[in-house]
Amino acid sequence: MSPLPPDAIEFIGYVAPRHVSEIHLASGPVIDRDYLRLLAQAHEWGGFDRVLVAFHSTAPDSILLAAQIAAVTERLGLMIAHRPGFTAPIVAARQFATLDHLTGGRVAIHVITGGDDRELAQDGDHLTKDERYARTREFLDIARLSWEAAAPFDYAGTYYRIADGFSEVKPVHPAGIPVYFGGASPAALAVAGRHADTYALWGETQEQVRDLIARVRAAAAPHDRSPRFSLSFRPILAATEEQAWARAESILARTRAIRAARGLGPAATPQNEGSRRLLAAAAQGSRLDRRLYTAIAMETGAAGNSTALVGTPEQVAEALLGYYDHGIRTFLIRGFDPLEDAIQYGRELLPAFRDLIARRGRAAEAA
Question: How large is the C-alpha radius of gyration of the chain?
Answer without folding.
Answer: 20
